[in-house]
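--- STAGE predict ---
source: upstream dedup step, 1 unique chain passed
mode: sequence only
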Amino acid sequence: MKVILCKELRCFFSSVSGWVFLAVFQAAAGVYFSLGNLASQNGDIKTFFASFTPFLMFILPLLTMRLYAEERNFRTEEMLLSSPLRITSIVMGKYIAALTAFALAIAPIVVFPFILAALHVPDFLSAAGCFAGLILAACAYISLGMFLSVCTESQSAAAASTYAVFLFMYLVSPQGGMSASGTAGKIAAFFSLSARISAFSYGVFNLADAFYCLSFSALFIFLSIFLLEDRRLS
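--- STAGE serialize ---
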């Protein structure tokens, strides 16, 4: 796993998409924070995270599209599958590399609550919950994006399919414009990632919601491993 992890991190920092991801992420975070909090003199950090968390669905495909589809583009898939490395190590190495890149992206925004604390009454419990929800959401979205990268033939196809699935997930969630009412709405809310992490922004650390996000991540990691094991055997 360490070999794959180091390889993926080298590829991330040597590729245009990696630096584009970091640049867009930081620019968007700065704009959301400046307009939503500083310009309006709003000291509630939840305002920033409420608007920024859905943005993950539009930025994370830049990170996940190349995780496995790149192997096919560079004709290295057969060499990778025939290597002595376990499929689990390959998948987990790529997944942890993507999470590491995401951690580097969110590291600078840790200062936002401290900036607001200097201007208003600090609410660090709410800020901690917001970061926890953001990280759990990223774990789930990255696992799904990686699975779609395994399923597709090229990086562009991986990005397009990931955008489509993420957009659908957002639209049918309670925060989206197509959320249903009644039983269908309750089912959509139950499976919605955005609904699951919303309570974290209030400093409520619900273990059931955290377990759901981690189970969601584990499911798509398992599916990625299963597909690659099938390809290796065939």
